[in-house]
Amino acid sequence: MRTETYKFSKNDNAQFFATLKNRVNFYFENNHLSKYGNYKIILKAVCMLCIYLVPFGLINSGYIENALIILGLWFVMGFGMAGIGLSIMHDGNHGAFSKYKILNRIAGYTANIVGGDAKLWKLQHNVLHHTYTNIHQVDEDIDGPSFLRFSPHHTKKKIHRYQHILAFFAYGLMTLSWAGWKDITQAIRFKEKGLIKKNKFTQELTSVIFWKLLYFFYLIFIPIFLFNVPVWLVLLGFFIMHFVCGLILSLIFQLAHVMPQNEFPLPNEEGVIENNWAVHQLQTTANFSPKSKFFSWYIGGLNYQIEHHLFANICHTHYKKLSVIVKSTAQEFNLPYHSEGNFFRAIKSHYIVLKNLGR
């Protein structure tokens, strides 16, 4: 489905976003704040890179020979890898990491050093997901493998009755597929959707393959052939790292959009979506665990998904303060503002949705 066929309607609720933007702009102007990240996000970026790179250096150092400790270091790398995606790459590719474009580009390209592709990620996430959130056949973030059903509009299969059991293992495999084949098949699909120009496709595909080869070279080839780390330890550790990272990333994004209160609107026959874009974001997005400071720090403020969807070009360090403005404005206009107070209760709610969608 080509995205240009879909349009958001203009109705009375359009005043909501105009009012909200004015209030958010006043907050930054009144407090003399920049909407971008400051030195704190630089320090966080260094921290996340260290959580990823320092264990990898220890694995290759030759000083550690105990297999369990080595696997434990790969486990820690999984948290670092997820942290890079959530707290560096994400803001960078939204242009919110820094007021300097070059720093945003560098931050965004950290996606490539952990097995992804920044350009394709921006097409899937910034263009499709942020614009057409939870819309069937357009938002690829709710298009999982065939044995998982995230939308009531997806075709029902017998295997879906077990998806509440299978899902959490499948979540752990998410970044493995990204590092392997997903970006290549996605590039082909995006060309067919018109998101990648035909004359740019070969260049994009070549770039994807180059970064994949580089990724597997430094993460698998170097430990095995240059530092003589046993093959089985490298391959098992690589899997553990990706499983940890995939599970974290999947849960963060699924708890924002596949929840009991989230809607999955369909456009009408003319391709018009019922509400304006901002109201659509409120209907299809949920926050969770808003009071946990460390958790919010680690996941790049993405427990405030509503604020992120409405103001993706603002650094995540501001989301907590903005949430007060967004919630009060939504209530003023009698619009939904979904939030789950606890991370584990949010997981339970997501589990129930999976079970219901599988029945």
Keywords:
359 residues, mainly alpha
Sum up the overall morphology in one term.
globular
Indicate the structural class.
mainly alpha
Largest sheet: 2 strands, parallel
Order of helices and strands: EHHHHHHHHHHEHEHHHEH
Number of helices: 15
The count of strands amounts to: 4
Low-confidence stretches at least 5 residues in length (pLDDT < 50)?
none
Radius of gyration over all CA atoms, rounded: 21 Å
Number of discrete domains: 1
Q: In angstroms, what separates the terminal alpha carbons?
A: 28 Å
Q: Average pLDDT across residues?
A: 94
Strand order of the largest sheet: 1-2
Helical percentage: 55-70%
Strand content: under 5%
Summarize the structure in words.
This protein is mainly alpha-helical. The protein has one domain (3-358). The chain is 64% helix and 3% strand. The chain contains 15 helices and four strands. A two-stranded parallel sheet has the order 1-2. α7 (163-172) packs across α10 (231-257). The longest helix has 29 residues, at 198-226. It is globular. The two termini are 28 Å apart. The relative contact order is 0.15.
Write the layout of secondary structure elements.
Blueprint: E1 7-8, H1 14-30, H2 39-61, H3 67-93, H4 101-108, H5 110-113, H6 118-131, H7 163-172, H8 174-193, H9 198-226, H10 231-257, E2 272-273, H11 277-284, E3 286-288, H12 293-298, H13 305-310, H14 319-332, E4 338-340, H15 343-358
Parallel strand pairs: 1-2, 3-4
